[in-house]
Amino acid sequence: MLQKSSQSILLVLVSVIALFASHSDSFPLSTHKRWIIDEATGHRVKLTCVNWATHLQPMLAEGLDKQPLEHIVKHVVDQKFTCVRLTWATHMFTRYANQSVSYTLDSLDLQEVKENINKNNPFILKMNHVQAYEAVVDELGKQGVMVLIDNHVSHPNWCCNDDDDNGFFGDRHFNAKEWLQGLHLIAKHFHGKSEVVAIDLRNELHGPRQNERDWYNYVHQGAKTIHKANPDVLVLISGLNYDTDFTFLKKKPLKLNLNNKLVYESHLYSWSGVGTVKMGEVWTAQPVNRICAQTLQGVEERSGFLNEGNHQAPLFFTEFGLDVTAGGDDIGNRFLTCFMSYIVGRDLDWGLWALQGSYYLREGKLAVEESFGLLDANFQQIKYQELPQKFQLLQKKIQDPTSKLPKSYIMFHPQSGQCVQAKNSGLEHGNCEQSSLWDHAGDGAPIMLKGKSTCLKAVGDGLAPTLSSDCKSDQPSSWKFVSMSHLHLATLDQQGQLLCLDKESSNSTKIVTNKCICIEDDSECLDNPQSQWFTFATTNLA
For labelling alongside 386, which of 4, 94, 252, 281 has CA 20 to 30 A away? Predict the structure, then answer.
């Protein structure tokens, strides 16, 4: 019994050490073309993050009144995030660095919050704001989580609106000189902390003062300021229009030498590119294939191109998310299914908004619940129960520039977050750790099981496709992507009927072929076709 217990303890210790080593021992990070890599080995390090707000008026990481700090961080680890994008406000370091957390809570009349922090994290009340921020960073590092420091705003407040005077250089609450001072202070302060792997210049530049000339000027100054004070960290650079637009770099590339530390960051939500939150309703008011195609084309034109060409660099989607209350809203789920096909298809680094389930104080209101929050309002349980299955392939590194293995494809079903597996009985979707590997030479070619002489063959409407050795006939073993979204895999059956791969039902793992749903650009066709969406994710690690 004693020997068995000792072995169990040893296994736990080995697992903890391995987890910590896999994250923290990668420091410092660097870049190689479109990849973020371990500077020492050249191996890819994939950043899969969750955002944790610290930039609002209390200037304190949300939730410390609800749960002990280590418990909140454990949620991050348990959900397999490799990093946290920890927000901060410039004034935290330039004006309120020495002000105690206790004093700030008193000044905001947050007595109940203060009492509950005293119960769950009493040491925080004895700290100033810089010390409290560092305590969160330290706990993340202790549990093997990397940290991206995000300059979210200057004046501590909720972000963002076009008229918040907090959005662009020269705004009333965005003094460029003070911003540079803040970047210097925080970069210098965390120099040598291996868990801090990246610092960004600014979250979501926005508002009527935006212009390209000032962007180039201050991006150069800000990036150089961070790099000089802390040459080990990656420097993340955001675009214009709420961090959605880098199109101006096509005409005038950013000539900035940071010794392979430059990374671009972008954001995307259901309403991005179309205006306000309410404009996100296009996802249910218009054909989903059309809206998805337009969304991803817009992403490619505004930021996706940064991964390619002579000036290619890593592109990191540091914010996206959806309302996860009661399993998520229809608009958000449609958007997320579309965007996941893009993230997985390129194996990009990303950050989910948000960890926090509620706020101490947001826009003048107490204890506001975060509908996009991974955690519940008490920071006790995971509110987004679908995350482990939905995000399993997003969290997995499937490409590495140092790999010598040949490329193959994982067939991914973005609506479920699962991967296609070849079984004796046909195709199923399931855990991506057991996904089958495939070869597909392009539209009109067969889908071949990797390393085998068998291919996917349609049998008929409503029936499961089979694995056949007859792979030379034009149909029904010839497959192509159809629809504007380029996410329907279709073939002709023996009767000449166009059929698409489809998830059989919500409570089945079986994959069948059915009549294709809304593949023409028909404004009257508003059925949701996403059960029929599949994409090939390139991998060279299997």
Answer: 281
- SS3 string, 30-80, reads EEECCEEEECCCCCECCCEEEEECCCCCCCCCCCCCCCCHHHHHHHHHHCC
* All domains of the chain in start order, with CATH: 23-390 (3.20.20.80), 408-539 (2.80.10.50)
Residue type, 44: R
Question: CB-based burial of residue 100 (10 Å sphere; 0-12 exposed, 13-18 middle, 19+ buried)?
Answer: middle
Backbone φ and ψ for 421, nearest 5 degrees, come out as -120, 135
Cβ atoms within 10 Å of 99's Cβ, excluding its own? 15
Q: Is 208 helix (H, G, I), strand (E, B) or coil?
A: coil
Q: Encode pLDDT of 198-240 as tens digits.
A: 999 999 999 999 999 999 999 999 999 999 999 999 999 999 9
Inform me whether the pLDDT recorded for 301 exceeds 80.
yes
Place of tokens 């637009």: 245
Please, is 287 exposed, middle or buried when counting C-beta atoms within 10 Å of its C-beta (0-12, 13-18, 19+)? buried
* Distance (Å, whole) CA 80 – CA 253: 36
CB atoms within 10 A of CB 177: 10
- Output the CA–CA distances (angstroms, integers) from residue 274 to 10, 242, 296, in the order listed: 54, 12, 13
Helix (H, G, I), strand (E, B) or coil at 150: strand
Tell me if residue 311 falls in helix, strand or coil: coil
Averaged confidence pLDDT in the chain = 93
Q: How far apart are CA 369 and CA 20, in angstroms?
A: 32
From the list 489, 473, 480, 474, the residue with the least C-alpha distance to 427 is 489
Q: Which residue has the tokens 């070849």?
A: 422
The percentage of the chain sitting over the pLDDT mark of 90, rounded to a whole number, equals 87
User: Three-class SS of residue 215?
Assistant: helix
Q: How many CB atoms lie within 10 A of CB 310?
A: 5
Tokens 């959806």 locate to 322
Beta bridge partners of 413: 418
* 8-state DSSP, 97: T
Looking at residue 486, its amino acid is H
Contact by Cβ (8 Å): 197, 235: no
The residue count for the chain? 542
Nearest by Cα to 182 from 58, 255, 91: 91
DSSP letters of 132-148?
HHHHHHHHHHHTT-EEE
Q: Using one digit for the tens of pLDDT, what is the confidence trace for 76-85?
A: 999 999 999 9
| Strand duo 498-503 + 488-492: pairing | antiparallel
